[in-house]
Amino acid sequence: MKKFWKNANIQLKIGLITTAVFLVIGFVIYYIPHVNPFTYNTYPEQLSPSFVHWLGTTSMGQDVMWLLIEAIHNSLMIGLIVATIGTVVGVFVGLLAGFSGGIADRVLTLLTDTFVVIPSLPILILMTSLMKGSSTVFLMALVLAMFAWAWPSRQIRSMALTMKERDFIHTAWFSGEGTVQVVVTEILPYALTWSLSNFMNATLSAIGSESSLAVLGLSPANLISLGNMIQWARERNAIFAGQWFWIGSPIVATVVLFVGLFLLITGYNDFLSMKRGK
Q: Which of 95, 105, 163, 236 is deepest in the core (most CB within 10 A)?
């Protein structure tokens, strides 16, 4: 671990620290017992920041700090679920298509290309509309995951095609291993490094997609997320009321989270490039 930290570039270090802070907020501080921040009129309205309410309260009597912590937790959960589903399904489908060949390859490639070219925004708008404003974190993540696997599948298929003709693959096939076994035991270890990078990128994309839907008023109304916090503050005219902590905290948190994940991704890729160069 010390060697890794010593060799890591500044982008990777900043990205790791920033991401770790958000993970602590979303998955450690979040579990400290507290009042449900979604409940209206729990506290006096529009209080200024204090030692009791660090970020003040909203015009609906909600504690902004706990609302923000809940939003970070749910946004990270959505991002992680979408990234997990998208990466696992994309890698498996891509490897299976690349190594199967024939009809299976053509069918899986056609399915992948179809999801790549379909515009995701209209479908997401339709799906969120069908939810009628009520959903769970997992259901919202499943909707976003519908389009999270296609690009990884296409990229992994290209990787599989280049490795398909290597000697150790032929040796595995001649030894009696099936396609799935070859993919899992022989090829998947080579794809893990790429998969980790894709996982981080997919997390960033999923959080961005949910935030965009929320700001457009299309995210479920009962879901506390960073995007919905911004939307609720905008609907309640937080800017005109001078409630800067209410609307400013989710915006700052979203920007910092996005920058942290971006630095983590780019720093990790640069670290791998440097490691290969050595």
A: 95
Q: Report pLDDT digits (tens) over 211-228.
A: 888 877 777 778 899 999
CA 267 – CA 194 distance, rounded (Å): 14
Query: What is the assigned CATH class of domain 10-32+61-277?
Result: mainly alpha
> Which 8-state DSSP code applies to residue 55?
T
DSSP classification of residue 31: G
Query: By percentage, how much of the chain surpasses pLDDT 90?
Result: 32
Residue type, position 110, single letter = L
Q: How far is CA 98 from CA 92, 104, 155, 160, 233, in A?
A: 10, 9, 10, 5, 48
Helix (H, G, I), strand (E, B) or coil at 57: strand
Residue 278 CA to residue 275 CA, distance in Å, equals 5
Amino acid at 193: T
Cα separation, 103 vs 110, whole angstroms? 10
Report domain extents, the chain. 10-32+61-277
CB-based contacts of 135: which residues, under 8 Å, 6+ apart?
128, 220, 222, 223
**The residue count for the chain:** 278
Cα–Cα distances in angstroms (integers) from residue 173 to residues 61, 157, 243, in the given order: 65, 19, 65
Give the tens place of pLDDT for each residue, 58-103: 999 999 999 999 999 999 999 999 999 999 999 888 888 887 778 8
Q: What span, in angstroms and rounded, lies between the C-alpha atoms of 152 and 2?
A: 32
Question: Within 13 Å, how many C-alpha atoms sit on residue 80's CB side?
Answer: 12
